[in-house]
TrEMBL record:
Gene3D superfamilies in the cross-refs: 3.30.70.930
Source organism phylogeny: Bacteria, Bacillati, Actinomycetota, Actinomycetes, Kitasatosporales
The protein's name in its UniProt record: MTH1187 family thiamine-binding protein
Domain Thiamine-binding protein stretches: 3-92
SUPFAM superfamilies: MTH1187/YkoF-like
Matches recorded under InterPro entries: MTH1187/YkoF-like, Thiamine_BP, UPF0045_domain
Superkingdom in the source lineage: Bacteria
Organism field: Streptomyces roseicoloratus
Length: 97
């Protein structure tokens, strides 16, 4: 499965990069395939391991912010691995051809 999620601290002012970095650090230290862009962090793995990482990433922000907003989208395809890169490669192939 692939989960794309964003964690936003509320009540800490406009500069949230430091808080978001706490969440991304948890994801990167998980060892699961992941990618971060301007809007979301995507992570790939089995249901329990991915959701555990998301929970810990939220907790890292929650430890420093009075309120946290989470947006999450999941692509659940049992038996499929490598989707995090394969989906992008497929689109790039169509763009090139």
């Amino acid at each position: 499965m692939i989960v794309a999620f964003s964690v936003t601290p509320l009540g800490v002012g406009e500069e949230v990069g430091e808080y978001v970095a706490d969440a991304v650090r948890v994801v990167r230290e998980s060892g699961l395939p992941n990618r971060t862009d301007a809007m979301f962090t995507s992570i790939e793995g089995e249901w329990d391991e991915v959701m555990d990482v998301v929970k810990r990433a939220v907790a890292a922000v929650e430890a420093r912010a009075p309120r946290v907003s989470v947006v999450l989208k999941a692509d659940i395809r049992p038996g499929v691995t490598g989707g995090l890169t394969q989906k992008v490669e497929t689109v790039e192939r169509y763009l090139a051809g």
